[in-house]
């Protein structure tokens, strides 16, 4: 199955995938126990898990006989990177606005 | 972990002056980015800046005015992407308050990829440490620690 790599925002744009992350935030779960929380087929759940795995939101560990899904920070870091980028962006733009407005108020 | 982008500044200018800089395309270009903004509810416009392929950003921000109430509130959608048609959604909101012979300006930028994104961030904050500890415990008891956490 060739999966186009989605960016972090596209990955979490899907409600089922957010639900998976939410469930995993409470505890690590096997693919089977994750699938029990959804109406969709197990292959459909596996597909979402693969998307989350590819984007670095989860890791999969073989523990005993079972495959466990565990939250991983990498995917979240990509989201955070965007927030930080725009945070710095606005900070510098607003400084520029301050200079312009100061010039305007002293001219009066 | 930041859940929202928020800036609050005070400018020694009346709200109307600050408002002009937020809603006049030429004035906006002086501090923000070149754009084709028109202060009309529902108007769609774009900001253009340099592309940054490193972070999958083609340099165009697609916007639509969602709320405009001069000279107090302004909000617009703020969508960006790598240039392949996929866009990340967010919303920029401005609030102006007259205060001490000047204007208090508040900027809130939120809603990246839908409003629930922030819930995930909250969840990460609350659950992350506990989760990591649980995982470490689980891994330590069942494997020989082949993974570095």
Low-confidence region ranges of chain B: 114-118, 143-149
Q: Give the low-pLDDT segments of chain A.
A: none
Number of domain units of chain A: 1
- What is the CATH topology descriptor of the largest domain in chain B? Alpha-D-Glucose-1,6-Bisphosphate, Chain A, domain 4
Report the major sheet of chain A: 3 strands, antiparallel
Outline type of chain A:
elongated
The structural class of chain B is: alpha+beta
Instruction: Tell me which oligomeric state these chains represent.
Output: heterodimer
Q: SSE order of chain A, as H and E?
A: HHEHHEEH
Structural domain tally of chain B: 2
What is the helix/strand order of chain B?
EHHEEEEEH
- What proportion of the residues of chain B form beta strands (DSSP E)? 25-35%
Helix content of chain A: 55-70%
**Mean pLDDT over the residues of chain B:** 80
According to CATH, the homologous superfamily of the largest domain in chain B is: START domain
Gyration radius of chain A, in Å? 21 Å
User: What's the CATH topology label of chain A?
Assistant: Arc Repressor Mutant, subunit A
CATH level 1 name of chain A: Mainly Alpha
Structure description:
The complex is a heterodimer of chains A (108) and B (149). Chain A has 108 residues and is an alpha+beta fold. Chain A has one domain: Arc Repressor Mutant, subunit A (Orthogonal Bundle), CATH 1.10.10.10. Chain A is built from five helices and three strands, in the order ααβααββα. In chain A, strands 1-3-2 form a three-stranded antiparallel sheet. In chain A, strand 2 and strand 3 form a beta hairpin. The longest helix of chain A has 35 residues. Chain A is elongated. Chain B has 149 residues and is α+β, with helices and mostly antiparallel strands. Chain B folds into two domains: 110 residues, START domain (Alpha-D-Glucose-1,6-Bisphosphate, Chain A, domain 4, 2-Layer Sandwich), CATH 3.30.530; 29 residues, no CATH class. Chain B is 29% helix and 32% strand. Chain B is built from three helices and six strands, in the order βααβββββα. Chain B has a six-stranded antiparallel sheet, covered by helices on one side. In chain B, helix 1 crosses helix 2. Chain B is elongated. In chain B, 19% of the residues are buried.
């Amino acid at each position: 199955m060739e999966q186009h790599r989605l960016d972090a925002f596209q990955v979490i744009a899907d409600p089922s995938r957010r639900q998976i992350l939410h469930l995993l935030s409470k505890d690590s779960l096997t693919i089977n126990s994750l699938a029990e929380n959804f109406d969709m087929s197990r292959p459909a759940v596996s597909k979402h898990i693969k998307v989350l795995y590819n984007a670095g939101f989860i890791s999969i560990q073989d523990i005993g006989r079972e495959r466990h899904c565990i939250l991983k920070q990498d995917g979240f870091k990509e989201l955070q990177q965007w927030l930080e980028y725009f945070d710095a962006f606005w900070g510098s733009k607003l400084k520029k606005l301050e200079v312009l407005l100061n010039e305007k108020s002293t001219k009066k | 972990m930041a859940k929202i982008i928020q800036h609050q500044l005070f400018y020694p200018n009346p709200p109307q002056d600050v408002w002009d800089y937020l809603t006049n395309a030429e004035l906006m270009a002086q501090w923000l980015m070149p754009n084709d903004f028109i202060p009309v509810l529902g108007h769609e416009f774009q900001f253009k800046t340099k592309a940054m392929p490193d972070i999958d950003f083609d340099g165009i921000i697609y916007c639509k005015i969602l709320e405009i109430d001069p000279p107090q509130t302004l909000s617009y959608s703020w969508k960006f992407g790598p240039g392949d048609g996929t866009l990340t959604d967010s919303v920029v909101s401005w609030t102006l308050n007259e205060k001490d012979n000047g204007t208090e300006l508040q900027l809130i930028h939120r809603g990246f990829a839908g409003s629930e994104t922030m819930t995930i961030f909250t969840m990460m904050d609350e659950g992350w440490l506990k989760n990591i500890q649980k995982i470490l415990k689980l891994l330590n008891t069942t494997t020989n620690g082949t993974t570095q956490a």
